[in-house]
Amino acid sequence: MGTPAEPAEKEKSKAVELHFPLIMVRTKRGLGMLDTVSRFRLIKPLSWVLLYVLPVFAAAALLLIFTSIVASFSNPVIREIGREISPRASLLIPGLNPFIPIVYGWIALVVALVIHEGAHGVQARALGLPVKSAGLLLFLGLPIGAFVEIDEKEMEKVSLKNAGKVLAAGPGSNMVIAAICLGLLILTVGSMTPLARGVGVIGVFDGFPAQEVGMSPGDIIVSVNNIPTPTIEDLAEVIGPLEPGDQVNVSIVRGDSRQSYLVSLAENPVNRSRSFLGVEITLFDFRLDAYQRIATVFPLIYLVPPTIRPFDVPYSDVLHMFYTSSIGPYFYPVANLLFWIWFVNFNVGVFNALPIYPLDGGQVFRRALKSASKGRLSDQAVKRITIAVALIIVGLILTTLLIPYIDLLPIRL
Fold this sequence. Notes:
Number of strands: 14
């Protein structure tokens, strides 16, 4: 195997480089770690698997793009949702994307970038290719990922097969981590059960009876006047006939405790002749059951972030308080962390598999095209075709973002 870096290259490489606001911190320990991992027996067979599934990832990404375009053209509801979400939702950058939480998002992004870059380096070392440097990438002092600098001149000399292994290792490893986290997330959601059978309180109105007696979001109304209220219809049947000023005994479950409140009903702000408790409610046990059933036949439901559909995803900020889990009280942060690591790694892996130069998929496409032409195409022609394909795919991606803002009403002449 080749050495991780030549002495001359080590002398030229600075331990710390500032490219404001980015800071590159090189470390010898990183090079040693790449060498250690590259010796694992699993690395070589895994490299073959990832090489052959890279086109599958690219095809899946293209299918998602085409499906998105067709759905947006044919369904005005989807276009409306696209306008509400905004193009920023397509960015995987916490803080810029309004739906990615800062803490979970940054952890997931760092994991994805470290896995991606590290996998390139590990595979390069497994094939004996020199790695010039490795280290951490900081943004204003905060770690946001890692980098691995493989000797590009040596990469150009290797066969298509070996170059493909190195390039496929990045997105492929992202997909492996995504699959592992998705499996753990499915197990976590499967361990969730409702705290009690009743109606969940997701909000209380200021100045109305529920708030005045101390009810709060997360409470589960299990009975009113000792009449069980397992559904919203049952709760409405008990409260509906009552008049403003009537007193009712509301029993709730809050976490591990059960409490009762004597509540004087108020006037309904919409219809003053009707009574009003002052709560916003949901049937949470139905939502958990529906989510689990849908996931068995349509696993891609796990691509829906809990921040976009909080009333449908049981581990969202809105719904998680109504459930318990066999894995303990930490199922909520565990489920969210697993979701975002799965979500970000899946998107990073799929996107990098696309034949968009200079992404990994684009580099593999360029090398494969050059090899397939067997000299019939000049380097310039290969470059032009590669760029043309990349521009077409970028155009399709931009189309998915722009369609919601295009007026598709029929033109009358």
